[in-house]
Amino acid sequence: MLDRGVLGQAAASPVHPRPLGRSATAVGVRAPGERIQRVVGGALHEISLTPLQDLHGIVTPADLHYERHHAGVAVVDPHQYELLIHGMVDRPTVFDLAALRRFPAVSRFHFLECSGNGESAYRNMRPDQSPQLVDGLTSTSEWTGVSLATLLREVGVHPRATWFLAEGGDAGLMARSIPVEKARDDAMIAYAQNGEALRPEQGYPARLLLPGWEGNTNVKWIRRLEFADRPFMTRDETSKYTDPLSNGTARMFSFVMDAKSIITFPAFPATLTGRGWWDVTGLAWSGRGRITRVDVSTNGGKTWSLAILQQPVLPKCHTRFSFPWNWDGREAVLMSRATDETGYVQPRLAQLRAARGPGTRYHFNDIRAWRVAADGAVTFEVDG
């Protein structure tokens, strides 16, 4: 029971009026102290990297979703927008944005990842790289649009059509050849992201979305789908996105993004402020489906322990994991290793280099490592 004298003193204390807060606004803003932002890079400022270490959960705010452009951000008038579907179809059709929105909508959470994401973890490694600089070319959003399978039925795609050309409306006419089986599976023409219209840098007013496949195939500002019985061998899939291997062959049409994970805390530039329990957390994802487990090592891969997967665990989507770690104050090397529902296990750096060679340019999904010094400072570490 509370003492009546204490209550009397509290009642007699002076009341300090609080200033009124600001009025409602048409568009919300972040708190003044929250200065989260992307890092812009590339010779022509053609990329921006998501601040993975500053995010919570799995969804990336639309204004922090990573960017990768081949000819700048296209400006497309939504009232003039058209999507042509032609080639080996019974009914060549032009759809405007209103027509696309008349079809039943689907909404799903999926990650996107640039096929070159993580190159700095494969070569040019530096200890002062944050998760954003190592793997910031991946983000997850809720995407809304029309199932591509619905449009295929609408135009009557021929049974002999096995590929289609996806062409964008940017200045470079970015174009990729895509197997029709992917269109019939989970592909969509997306026109909304995280509850609002696509941002211009994400392909406004509409883009192709191919869940789990390398980012460049998810063609933005989509303007044309042409169906055929063979791949089109476009400039973008021959001069780029074909990966020379050390044995003289090349990987082509390597669409699926392999299972991958990264610890986002503790990671550079964080510093642990004392011994005791710390929550090791990060993200895992796979283009083949769901993540089924993530293992964490605190001794450079000598031993591994099972991490906790935060719900929901969705297919082809970022999954948040955590691992309680009792740090004893001694130097440690933290790693994470993802496994997906196909049984695929994220490889060590040496394994990936043996398979791909030193000159590979895409699909860098090797295990990432972070060194925790005795003073608590965390730096990026090469997984030797």
Brief characterization of the structure:
This protein has 384 residues and is mainly beta. The protein has helices at 4-12, 97-102, 131-135, 148-155, 180-185, 235-238, 349-356, and strands spanning 39-41, 47-49, 67-68, 82-87, 93-96, 105-113, 138-147, 163-168, 175-179, 188-193, 196-197, 207-209, 222-228, 243-244, 250-251, 260-265, 276-285, 291-297, 305-306, 308-309, 319-327, 332-340, 369-372, 378-381.
Briefly note the structural class of the backbone: mainly beta
- C-alpha end-to-end distance: 63 Å
Low-confidence sequence ranges: none
The gross shape turns out to be globular
CATH topology of the largest domain: Sulfite Oxidase, Chain A, domain 2
Strand content: 25-35%
Query: Which percent bin holds the helix content?
Result: 10-25%
CA radius of gyration is: 24 Å
Jot down its keywords.
384 residues, mainly beta, Sulfite Oxidase, Chain A, domain 2, Immunoglobulin-like, 2 domains, 5-stranded mixed beta sheet, 5-stranded antiparallel beta sheet, 24 strands
What does it look like?
The chain is globular. It has seven helices and 24 strands. The model has no long low-confidence stretch (mean pLDDT 94). The chain has helices at residues 4-12, 97-102, 131-135, 148-155, 180-185, 235-238, 349-356; strands spanning 39-41, 47-49, 67-68, 82-87, 93-96, 105-113, 138-147, 163-168, 175-179, 188-193, 196-197, 207-209, 222-228, 243-244, 250-251, 260-265, 276-285, 291-297, 305-306, 308-309, 319-327, 332-340, 369-372, 378-381. The chain starts with a helix and ends with a strand. A hairpin with a 5-residue loop joins strand 4 (82-87) and strand 5. The chain is mainly beta and 384 residues long. The strands form six sheets. A five-stranded mixed sheet has the order 5-4-13-8-9. Strands 6, 7, 10, 11 and 12 form a five-stranded antiparallel sheet that branches. The protein folds into two domains: 47-243, Oxidoreductase, molybdopterin-binding domain (Sulfite Oxidase, Chain A, domain 2), CATH 3.90.420.10; 260-381, Sandwich (Immunoglobulin-like).
